Amino acid sequence: MSVQARNSSRRAKADQEWKRLRLRTVREAVDNAADCAVHSYGEVQRFFLAHPCRSLDRTLLTLADPDGGTFVLSISWVRTRSRSDTADLQRLIDTDGTGSIAPLAFSALKARGVRFTGTPFQSRRSGDTLVVAEAATVSGTPGASLMEGSVAAASRL
Prior knowledge:
Blueprint: H1 3-20, E1 24-33, E2 40-41, H2 42-50, E3 55-64, E4 70-79, H3 83-93, E5 99-101, H4 106-111, E6 121-126, E7 129-139, H5 144-155
Antiparallel strand pairs: 1-3, 2-5, 3-4, 4-7, 6-7
């Protein structure tokens, strides 16, 4: 499947999930890369230097809840060279303080005071692919359960 077809399929599934959760997509950015080490930090970056990935697809969504609160949702799809690399990466990335995949526009978000704290966070393995999803509040007070639900839905995309 081509990168464009993958992105289109994920977008269609995501739109259904956001509609189900009564969320509106305000903004979306997509990036596809081959070097995971460049787009990661901490022990996760060191892992990628020793075990290069096959591909990295990242999406950053700004979502709005019915009350006007907004949050960003970072989703990364990491395709590794083996299922064992995927399992090892998941164990590492699921451990607090070990680093992660940098969200798209990470520096700009940080400059605006948006902080990814690790909650809500979820990862899911599917063969040689690890999906990593995390959310952070931008404005207002989006509900924690709504943000957790969006992260859970994103990890299934």
